[in-house]
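Example 3.2
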Amino acid sequence: MVTFLRKATLENRHGAMQSQEVTSELDLVDLYSGAGGLSLGGARAGFSVRGAVEFDSHAIKTHKTNFPKTIHIEKDIAGISGSALLTELGLGNKRLTGIIGGPPCQGFSSIGRNEKDDPRNKLFVHFFRIVGEVQPKFFLAENVPGILNRQYDYIRAEAFRYVENEYTILPPLTLSANEYGAPTTRTRVFFIGFLPNEIKGLSVDDFIPPSRIKKISVQNALQGLPQQIDPNWKSDDECWRKVGPIGNDYFSVRLKGKVPITVGDEIALTKLHTENKVSGFIGTAHSRKVIKRFAKVNPGSYDSISKCRRLELDGFCPTLRAGTGPDRGSYQAVRPIHPTEDRVITPREAARLQGFPDWFQFPPTKWHSFRQIGNSVSPILAERILSVIRGALGSEGSQEE
């Protein structure tokens, strides 16, 4: 067993003497990886993100930026076999530890069209087909609660046929990110299965959030970020801004530190830890009429025309929407109104509210940034779940609180 420790230039790059231990034998592949919310949670839980498969060219570019040592496969999973995947990952006969991923959820979403015959629904089945062919020690699939609706029983049944004979499959876990220390109420369903000869005693009760978890409000999440955003900030240089101090609790530590081996863009890490500069403060130009309307919107209430909701400082952020892709008109998602400013939130504020660290990079455009953030699993929730699974694997142990 070979263990690597990330310790290079700790003082000026990470802000504190800390290291993240990752064991090379604990390899994951992230299917439908998107920008990498699940990947980051896995890396922080102690796994090595060996591969990421994503068809969206913009999303996989973001993943490459933040996971530069991961093998990236820009292909449609429907056309990939398990053996071809293992070949591209260079694993040979070695068993993959885990397959994780969030198959497209738009067809199952109650916010979307909730279409029973949406062709993207079949991508959920392909996730389990790959699992059945590769036979990793465990799998974790994430989706929206709508997938549990009776009209999709046939989709789940078709998917589980690939794994039900070999794997112990836990009942679906419906989890809200805010109960695990993230500042958003985003609720998702997780399907977890494992080979009983590799993992023993793992149950639904293991994923119940401990009572000691600190609740993170919108105010906590936005701490230290500049509130005054120039609507004309568009260029890359303009959108890097200094941020103020934050706390030292579980959430705050993950905003600046907890950087796993092989993860992170070096430029972003250096700017954060030497200049306190963070990207993503892209401005939005509102008309005077809109600003006046926003000024009348109370916390927790909606603007009657745009349907934008004003965030509550002492509350949680609702689920951030992703908007639609080019195949559905490229519509930008409705964004929340800042809790104290009469404007919609920036991509960096959205990233904070989803639980992404300040060093995590997103595209330099609002549409792509919000789409990727809205489609992501909160890394805070992902780390909590995958830490439980890592601990159940045996001698490696679980992660610290």
